[in-house]
Amino acid sequence: MKNTVDISAVSVRAMIKTNNTEPNNTKLCLAKNRSGKPCQKYPIVGRMRCRLHGGLSTGPRTEEGKARIIAAHYKHGRRSKAFLETRKRMWAALRKKVMEMKIQGYL
What we know:
It contains three helices and no strands. It is an all-alpha fold and 107 residues long. It folds into two domains: 1-74, no CATH class; 75-107. The protein is elongated and about 80 Å long.
């Protein structure tokens, strides 16, 4: 009796895509793509995601790369309490000047 291995079509495609000759039940990446549908690519070997969705990413390794990540989390400050108070005072002063000009007949 010949040994047969039940290989699904998904496993065959995974073997071809990953250059892996051993049959396995490789899952798909399934990360949401820009259209909102799950990605149909196969993940990088030993990872859960494909190369397009972070499977190749190892994160920043150098100090420069780590500093870039920290800088990316910088908030702009346009909604800080200090900015909102300053803006409120500026608009109040502007309204006051407009009202004075209306009373004097300039507007």
